[in-house]
Design a protein that fits this description.
Strand content: 25-35%
Order of helices and strands: EEEHEH
Number of helices: 2
Structural class: alpha+beta
Distance between the termini: 9 Å
Largest sheet: 4 strands, antiparallel
Radius of gyration: 12 Å
Helix content: 10-25%
Number of strands: 4
Shape: globular
Length: 81
């Protein structure tokens, strides 16, 4: 399952340890997360990496997202999934 996540600190860099197989940083703070875990596990895994009170959003993706002008290699990362 792919999740999109936004975290307000911009400090999470790939790869990071957690309930996921991989994370791609599209832009600082904007992530794609590849995980077999549920949304709550991904949310709490990311939350544990962040300073307290950091805004965080995690949502599942029903399909591959369409994007442009993101970090180099992120389109290839998505295609590999």
């Amino acid at each position: 399952m792919l999740y999109v996540a936004w975290e307000g600190s911009g400090s999470v860099a790939a790869p990071v340890g957690g309930p996921w197989s991989d994370v791609a940083v599209l832009q600082p703070g904007l992530l794609l997360v590849d995980s077999e875990a549920g949304r709550s596990a991904v949310y709490h895994g990311l939350k544990d990496l962040l300073p307290p009170e950091t805004p965080l959003l995690v949502g599942p993706l029903a399909d591959d997202p369409k994007f442009s002008r993101m970090a180099p290699g992120t389109t290839a990362w998505l295609r590999d999934r």
